[in-house]
Amino acid sequence: MKPVSHLDSYRLQLMADAPPVPDLPMPWDARVARPDGYDLHLVHRWNQAPHVAAFRRQAWTVPQWERRLAELLAGDDVRPVLISWHGRPVIYAEVYRAARHAVAGCYRARPHDLGLNLAVGELAMTDRGLVRSLLPRLTDALFEADPHCTRIVLEPDVRNTRAIRSFEAGGFVAADEIMLPGKLALLMVCKR
């Protein structure tokens, strides 16, 4: 067997695996969202909610969400995740490789950079500090799961001031306004 050269070792390091599913400390828990049953209907219902649909623009039908979740799980770019607080699902998240996402055209993405899309599904659970409480734990768990990751990005719609305030309180810093498909976004970064 041929020994691995320094250059080959560097190339292997740059090849990022699928995004990790974070191992969160209590009272938080995260797991992959399944494309059927309870998970499918919960993700569909949450994305139909006006406070989510206004910014995510994914108020799709159940069959569309079923296809979307199945496609995400079959690929290596995005992991759909349900995050629970005290055993109750409260947040739908997508953990993605930023270098394989449209956001990579707006900043110098590194192969191991991770991105997050977050949505608090129930309106009654918003404005309770869940996101600002979750984010430091979530970023720590993602950095631990991928030791090569040095940055995690968010790209909320610039009009979503509630989310932006929560993200800032959770440790993210605004970097730049960027144009993404369907929205003017604020690129926000959390560094290791």
UniProtKB/TrEMBL annotation:
Coiled coil: none annotated. GO terms for molecular function: N-acyltransferase activity. Residues 31-79 form the Acyltransferase MbtK/IucB-like conserved domain. It holds the Pfam family Acetyltransf_8. It comes from the Bacteria. The keyword Transferase applies. Keywords: Transferase. One of its GO terms (biological process) is siderophore biosynthetic process. Acyltransferase required for the direct transfer of medium- to long-chain fatty acyl moieties from a carrier protein (MbtL) on to the epsilon-amino group of lysine residue in the mycobactin core. This is Lysine N-acyltransferase MbtK.
